[in-house]
Amino acid sequence: MDKFLADYLASLGGCEQLSLNNKFFGDKGCAAIAAFLEQHKNKFTTIELQANNITSSGVDSIAKALASQSALRSLSLEWNPVRDSSGLRHLCQVVAAHPSIKTLSLRECQVGPCGASAIAEMIKGNRTLESVDVAHNEFGLEGGLTILNVLQDNGVITQLNLTGNAVGYETLSAVEACLRRNKGLPCSPRRRGCALQPCEAIRQDNLCRNVQKSLQCQLEEMECKLFATRRDLEDRKAALAAEAKRAEARDTQEKEVDTLRAELSVATQQLEEA
User: Fold this and answer.
1) What is d(CA 243, CA 250) in angstroms, rounded to the nearest whole number?
2) What's the CA gap between 117 and 148, in Å, rounded?
3) Measured by CB atoms within 10 angstroms of the end CB, which terminus of the chain is less buried, N or C?
4) 67-84 tens-digit pLDDT
5) In the sheet where 131-133 sits, what is the strand order?
């Protein structure tokens, strides 16, 4: 075990908070922390392990040790490259069954749509979580809808941060409505009388928006082609006008030549008569 980590764990004594943020001890450090947690059962109410380069195996170690911490209220693993991993799925399963945890942060953990599904199952199974921060991950539209779908049946969570996940404005608005409901608050005054939008309605709305964008692109492309066609026609019209002027000039010259020839013929005749 790293000496700093060993010294820190040994110094905790009766402290109920384990805070090791920004230490970059990695998965090996997690294994040591997990062993320490299992040796000191039901000791900690808060565990903070932010920004420590923890990956799937490290999260898996922590997840196994959480069963020994029934008094735990808050867990933070933000700023770790957890991703859509087996460790994340194991953690979600453990948290789903945990009897007392109220706050969980998985902010900036590079979690994608598959991980969002695991988090959704965790929310569905747990009835003590009040605050979940999963901001700035990579859920996308489908991941956001998966979270919203279970949140609509959850009456406990009052804080859920989904920002920075490209889930769409409609999903964020529906999540806000769920949270206001859970807090016992009315809908936002800007959306007075609003109702929770079903996931299918939001999905259809997103589909309509995508179709609208596609049609807009097609319209812009057609407008560009029409502009090019008009420009070609105008160039052709100008060329024909110039050709007409040249032809007109030639006709004028031919008429002038004919007139001069006629005058020359008259003059010649007059000379002969003289």
Assistant:
1) 11
2) 11
3) C
4) 999 999 999 999 999 999
5) 17-19, 46-48, 74-76, 103-105, 131-133, 159-161
